[in-house]
Write a structure and sequence with these properties.
With 300 residues, the protein is mainly α. It has 2 domains: 98 residues, DNA polymerase, domain 1 (Orthogonal Bundle); 178 residues, Intergrase catalytic core (hpI Integrase, Chain A). It has a 3-stranded antiparallel sheet with strand order 1-2-3, with no helix packed on it. A hairpin with a 5-residue loop joins strand 2 and strand 3. It starts with a helix and ends in a 6-residue tail after the last helix. The model has no long low-confidence stretch (mean pLDDT 89).
């Protein structure tokens, strides 16, 4: 099969069988179009059966010369390996040479986390005198209250909300159902938002998504990211933050309060406990910092 045709089949596979997110789909296809261009142009191969280990290594060597970050290089390798697994699964190739490629080891950087006081300062800094402010405050409180990914927050629909039962029931990352309890404070602001704010945005009677813009459209990840960063600047937060920082802070604060790591995994919707374990490292770093600041001889 020709590489271009195989890549088109792979697109259908990602959309249909795998049902990946839009961001994951875009990343795979962007990486693989560059891969296809290299294989056809510089290696002069047009059929997927003509791609051998040397061809893949040559392409990866060309990426390394571009001084890409480890995470970008790892993502490209993942895209290529996933593509070749698909080719093998569909019997478009006889041997999966990509299977022998090892991704470079990533250096795990601990995510930025806000303290409880900084969370309080951020929430307190948002006034409630306009529909936009009420919406923004509700989104911040709900994201922190439930540990939501920003994509989950902006994609919440009216039927995902169970106010009487005090929880969210929605489909999160990986097409998995998540049930997350909502705090009393979040319930209070959701009700305020529905009463004072959402009717202002709901000019076109868009009843599907909970959080809307002035144009009566669904709030986007990019829009909320800009809004949140402005809020943090106004609150005097000096750390480099994003809406995802609220999720990291949610998990870290629960761990600091003694909640079991397995329960935090469930609340976050992590399929692998090792993903959740990074928050134990954050708590250990915090403990070390407190010790160094408090012990009279620790810095000697």
């Amino acid at each position: 099969m020709k590489i271009k045709a195989a890549l088109k089949e792979f697109e259908y596979y990602l959309r249909g069988e795998k049902n990946v997110s839009e961001a994951t789909f875009d990343a795979y296809i962007s990486d693989l179009k560059n891969y296809e261009y290299f294989i056809t142009t510089y290696r002069n191969k047009v059929d997927v059966k003509e791609i051998f280990l040397e061809d893949i290594r040559k392409y990866l060597a060309s990426l390394k010369r571009k001084h890409l970050t480890v995470s970008t290089l790892s993502r490209n390798i993942t895209s290529i390996k996933t593509f070749h697994r698909f080719l093998m699964k569909e019997k478009f190739i006889d041997y999966n040479y990509a299977n022998t490629i090892q991704a470079p080891k990533k250096v795990k950087n601990l995510p930025a986390v806000l303290s409880i006081k900084e969370i309080d300062d951020i929430i307190a800094s948002i006034e409630e005198t306009s529909p936009e402010q009420i919406r923004n405050k509700t989104m911040v409180i709900l994201a922190y209250s439930c540990g939501l990914r920003v994509s989950e927050l902006v994609n919440l629909r009216m039927n995902d909300l169970r106010i009487s039962k005090r929880y969210l029931d929605f489909v999160g990352k990986g097409n998995k159902e998540r049930i997350v309890p909502i705090s009393n404070e979040a319930i209070k602001y959701i009700e305020l938002y529905f009463e004072k704010s959402r009717p202002f945005f709901n000019k076109s009677n868009n009843l599907e998504y909970i959080f809307l813009t002035k144009q009566a459209k669904q709030m986007s990840r990019e829009n909320f990211s800009i809004i949140f960063k402005k809020i943090c600047i106004n609150a005097g937060i000096k750390k480099k933050v994003s809406p995802h920082t609220l999720r990291h802070s949610f998990a870290t604060h629960l761990l600091d309060q003694g909640l079991d790591l397995r329960l935090i995994q469930e609340l976050l919707g992590h399929s692998d406990i090792s993903t959740t374990e990074i928050y134990t490292n954050i708590s250990q770093e915090k403990l070390k910092q407190v010790y160094l600041e408090a012990h009279p001889r620790a810095r000697k």
